[in-house]
Amino acid sequence: MQRFHKGRLFEHEYWDDNSGEVKTMKGRIRLCPYYFLEGDRVRLRGALATIAPADKKFLHGMRDAILVPSRVAETAARDLAAV
Asked: 66-71 and 21-38 as β-strands: parallel, antiparallel, unpaired?
């Protein structure tokens, strides 16, 4: 079960096909983690970050959202383990 954290506002750039330029959108982020079974261990290997416009309440089925794949970097994982 993933712990809930209220989203905070964040700015992210995206490509706007209609105008043909890079724009910035302020929105809220939801992270969906991806875990994989490797041998006998379960490991976090990435997450899908969904950034929805700040004025919207729901993320599911959002036409105007930005989808950003991400991953856990080995250096970040080592840094987190040291904390």
From this structure: unpaired
**Which candidate, 4, 6, 13, 7, places its Cα nearest to that of 68?**
13
Both tokens of 81, joined, read 């383990």
> How does pLDDT run across 37-67, given as a tens digit for each residue?
999 999 888 888 888 898 887 666 677 888 8
Spell out the domain ranges in the chain: 9-82
Which has the closest alpha carbon to 64: 74, 55, 73? Answer: 55
- What is the DSSP pairing of strand 9-16 with strand 41-53? unpaired
The pLDDT confidence band at residue 28, using thresholds 50, 70 and 90, is confident
- Residue at token pair 């490797």: 38
Buried b (16+ CB within 10 A) or exposed e, 53-78: eeeeeebeebeebbeeeeeeeeeeee
Mean pLDDT of 14-33: 91
